[in-house]
């Protein structure tokens, strides 16, 4: 009896490890900002995502004048603070693009392993973090993409 229970536990553990808990989500995973040991929410913007056997694309809403409504307040940070954008999902996106947006002006910023530095000058800065899950073999095939919005208030 003990032997059968051990075998049953082993089979359950193997099956649990082989399933992807994110397979059935109809939206991309959440992203968060980590800075100063604290975690902050971002706002999911436009995305395209595989939903079972079909693809779903959603565009985010912008207000008149090009200002995007955010459901989260700006994140207060120190000048030059280390900022990490963290996505708890496997696999991780393999293409990343970070831009600082000011009206119609966009500045592309470098990101290294999900980290970037806050501006040195005080003020509120708007960001869009865009990611893609591109196929490893076919570089023209995307398995999903998403943009995440957040604001930093450098104090």
Structure summarized in a few sentences:
The protein has one helix spanning 2-18, and strands at 31-35, 38-41, 43-51, 54-58, 75-77, 82-87, 95-102, 105-109, 115-117, 123-134, 142-154. It is mainly beta.
Notes on the protein architecture:
This protein has 155 residues and is mostly beta strands. Helices cover 11% and strands 47% of the residues. The protein has one helix at 2-18; strands at 31-35, 38-41, 43-51, 54-58, 75-77, 82-87, 95-102, 105-109, 115-117, 123-134, 142-154. Strands 3, 4, 5, 7, 8, 10 and 11 form a seven-stranded mixed beta sheet that branches. Strands 2-1-6-9 form a four-stranded antiparallel beta sheet, with no helix packed on it. The longest helix has 17 residues, at 2-18. The protein is globular, with a radius of gyration of 19 Å.
Write the layout of secondary structure elements.
Layout: H1 2-18, E1 31-35, E2 38-41, E3 43-51, E4 54-58, E5 75-77, E6 82-87, E7 95-102, E8 105-109, E9 115-117, E10 123-134, E11 142-154
Parallel strand pairs: 5-11
Antiparallel strand pairs: 1-2, 1-6, 3-4, 3-11, 6-9, 7-8, 7-10, 10-11
Rg estimate, integer Å: 19 Å
- N-to-C SSE string, H for helix and E for strand: HEEEEEEEEEEE
- Classification by helices and strands: mainly beta
- Alpha-carbon distance between the two ends: 65 Å
Principal-axes shape call: globular
Mean pLDDT value: 83
Unreliable stretches: 1-23
Largest sheet: 7 strands, mixed
- Helix-residue proportion: 10-25%
Individual helix count: 1
Beta-strand portion reads over 45%
Number of strands: 11
């Amino acid at each position: 009896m003990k032997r059968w229970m051990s075998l049953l536990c082993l089979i359950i553990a193997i099956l649990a490890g082989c399933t992807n808990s994110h397979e059935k989500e109809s939206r991309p995973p959440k992203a968060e900002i980590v800075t100063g040991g604290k975690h902050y929410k971002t706002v999911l913007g436009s995305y395209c995502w595989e939903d079972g056997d079909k693809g779903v694309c959603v565009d985010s809403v912008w207000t008149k004048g090009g200002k995007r409504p955010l459901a989260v307040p700006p994140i207060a940070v120190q000048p030059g603070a280390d900022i990490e954008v963290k996505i708890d999902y496997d696999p991780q996106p393999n293409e990343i693009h970070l831009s600082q947006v000011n009206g119609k002006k966009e500045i592309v910023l470098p990101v290294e392993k999900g980290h970037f530095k806050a501006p040195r000058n005080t003020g509120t800065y708007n960001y869009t973090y865009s990611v893609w899950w591109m196929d490893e073999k076919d570089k023209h095939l995307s398995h999903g993409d998403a943009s995440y919005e957040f604001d930093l208030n450098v104090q």
